[in-house]
Amino acid sequence: MTDEQQTPMQRMMGDFAPTFVELTDDVLFGKVWSRTEELSPRDRSLITVTSLVTAGNTEQLHAHIPMGLANGLTEDEIKEAITHVAFYAGWPRAVSALTVAQQIFAR
Fold first, then answer.
1. Distance CA 49, CA 55 (A)
2. In terms of DSSP H, where are the helices of the chain?
3. 52 CB contacts (<8 Å, ≥6 apart)?
4. What's the whole-number mean pLDDT along residues 37-48?
5. For the purposes of burial, counting CB atoms within 10 Å of the CB of 2, is it exposed (0-12), middle (13-18) or buried (19 or more)?
6. pLDDT at residue 14, as a whole number
7. In terms of domains, do 27 and 66 share one?
8. Residue 5: which pLDDT band, with cuts at 50, 70 and 90?
9. 50 with 30, same domain?
10. Residues 6+ apart with CB under 8 A from 60
């Protein structure tokens, strides 16, 4: 299987954690993210980005901010969402998240 044929999780984990890769690809992105009647991919991306900020998992924003843009979020919406959750998640977490967002948007 070429790199282009692999999912992002397959490229990240390879054969190191095949069960984790399978659950990510088949359940999380295969079943949960595909439930578009309940929430649109755009809404799921907005929820995911703000949840990652709230939990302090800014390393995952490198994948989820571009995904959010692909799902219809704008840069301004992402920045506003991070600014909004700063009051709930904490200022340092928002600063870290905005720093990641700034790097991504500069590409």
1. 10
2. 8-13, 18-22, 41-55, 61-70, 75-89, 91-105
3. 58, 60, 61, 64, 97
4. 96
5. exposed
6. 85
7. no
8. confident
9. no
10. 52
